[in-house]
Amino acid sequence: MANICVCARWRPSNLKEGGEALCIARSDSQSFTLEDEKDEKYMFSFDKVFYEDSEQADVYEFLARPIVRDAVKAINGTIIVYGQTGAGKTYTMEGANIRETDSCKKGLLPRVVDELFEAINLHGEASTYKIKLSMVEIYMERVRDLLDLSKDNILIKEHKGHGILLCGVTEILISDGEEALKFLYNGIANRAVGETQMNMASSRSHCIYIFTIQKELTNEKRVGTGKLVLVDLAGSEKVEKTGAEGRVLEEAKTINKSLSALGNVINALTSGQQGRANHIPFRDSKLTRILQDSLGGSSQTALLCCCSPCRCNFSESLSTLRFGARAKHIKASSRTDMKEEMHDKKQETSSSANDMKLKIVDLRERILKKLREKLDAETLKLIREEFALDGFSCEEVNLSHEEVAVISSQGAEAETHESMENHHSPFQCGIEISSYTIFFIA
Ligand SMILES: Nc1ncnc2c1ncn2[C@@H]1O[C@H](COP(=O)(O)OP(=O)(O)OP(=O)(O)O)[C@@H](O)[C@H]1O
């Protein structure tokens, strides 16, 4: 799977649209053609296409399950649903409602909860887990805590080791699926809901569900943390089509601005400019800021483009699908958190040496990951950026197109030497950071 898994989902026509022509012609499970009124055709291919007759379970299995399973192994994951108002985002995310018991209609969220508790219950006594839930919405560029509405302007900060943090956000420790659904239900009830001509119960905010899964290895006194983020975006339709005025118009403009910011970030990432993290406009909206970790590459990301099959919604569907197509080109990440973030609990307060070690191991993993990918000029630039991002000087690092970098820590050094010798590659140069050496070979 690529860094980002992009799928499209077509909801069935509703009663109002019953007699209207459709704009979609199926090809196969990954491709389809979109047709406008003049029979102009646009072909799209995604990782998977879920047609009108697709089941909620199919969407979960393909798009979400691998990410949920990884989150239990401390690999961060993000699932985003995108599309115009009424295209089926909330139906996909929550189901017919969050407490839906009919298994055909259950959405991603209750299935995620089921799977999380199922997975942690399988792990026996060697490890214990804590699952925490936070819920925020971004409404008019303010981040509100949906589990405590008195916190209506949550600040977003970036922590060097932990990435993006929501300051003071409520984190509920949940002990079972039923409790999780209760809090999800309460949070959803707190969402800002407006009314437009397109959908009388339209959500005008981006809703973000954050599950933090903390794994503790009983004997080794270590913890690993995985963050699973689900995002139900506000409707992406054109402002004019909503017929909105006044406050509702302002809401629509703000939503579109943040979705454009999301598009711009994706464009910047796909146009090969991702070498310098500060060139990606993550700070242009609260949405992109919160998603910085996942879009920047620190987690597994899935994007579901929800569409209405009706021809009257052709232009919105086209724009939704184009958004997804652009996202599909997101290249190798500049960061990855595909690691267990290990902390020695006892020494947490006086562990700067350990922190440095973790940082180096993390850095090594990230760089090795890059090296597995095509080593081109852009990648080499990214490697240098990684050093800079982590606050290490990279002046001594002089990589050219032909060079291959091998990162070695004390623990992995022997293995690295051996594998390098096997490849008959002499060391060219090495630089030392703390007690670790980074070797560069020709
Ligand atoms: N796959 C589906 N199968 C059956 N009904 C669906 C499906 N997708 C959406 N619907 C129905 O279509 C209507 C609109 O869907 P939904 O509320 O999920 O749209 P939305 O994209 O979340 O809109 P908003 O941006 O306003 O939140 C709802 O009544 C929902 O139950």
From TrEMBL:
<keyword id="KW-0493">Microtubule</keyword>
<protein>
    <recommendedName>
        <fullName>Kinesin-like protein</fullName>
    </recommendedName>
</protein>
<dbReference type="GO" id="GO:0008017">
    <property type="term" value="F:microtubule binding"/>
</dbReference>
<dbReference type="GO" id="GO:0005524">
    <property type="term" value="F:ATP binding"/>
</dbReference>
<dbReference type="InterPro" id="IPR036961">
    <property type="entry name" value="Kinesin_motor_dom_sf"/>
</dbReference>
<feature type="domain" description="Kinesin motor">
    <location>
        <begin position="3"/>
        <end position="330"/>
    </location>
</feature>
<keyword id="KW-0547">Nucleotide-binding</keyword>
<keyword id="KW-0175">Coiled coil</keyword>
<dbReference type="InterPro" id="IPR027417">
    <property type="entry name" value="P-loop_NTPase"/>
</dbReference>
<dbReference type="InterPro" id="IPR001752">
    <property type="entry name" value="Kinesin_motor_dom"/>
</dbReference>
<dbReference type="Pfam" id="PF00225">
    <property type="entry name" value="Kinesin"/>
</dbReference>
<dbReference type="GO" id="GO:0005874">
    <property type="term" value="C:microtubule"/>
</dbReference>
<feature type="binding site">
    <location>
        <begin position="83"/>
        <end position="90"/>
    </location>
    <ligand>
        <name>ATP</name>
    </ligand>
</feature>
<dbReference type="GO" id="GO:0003777">
    <property type="term" value="F:microtubule motor activity"/>
</dbReference>
<keyword id="KW-0067">ATP-binding</keyword>
<comment type="similarity">
    <text>Belongs to the TRAFAC class myosin-kinesin ATPase superfamily. Kinesin family. KIN-1 subfamily.</text>
</comment>
<dbReference type="GO" id="GO:0007018">
    <property type="term" value="P:microtubule-based movement"/>
</dbReference>
<dbReference type="InterPro" id="IPR027640">
    <property type="entry name" value="Kinesin-like_fam"/>
</dbReference>
<dbReference type="InterPro" id="IPR019821">
    <property type="entry name" value="Kinesin_motor_CS"/>
</dbReference>
<keyword id="KW-0505">Motor protein</keyword>
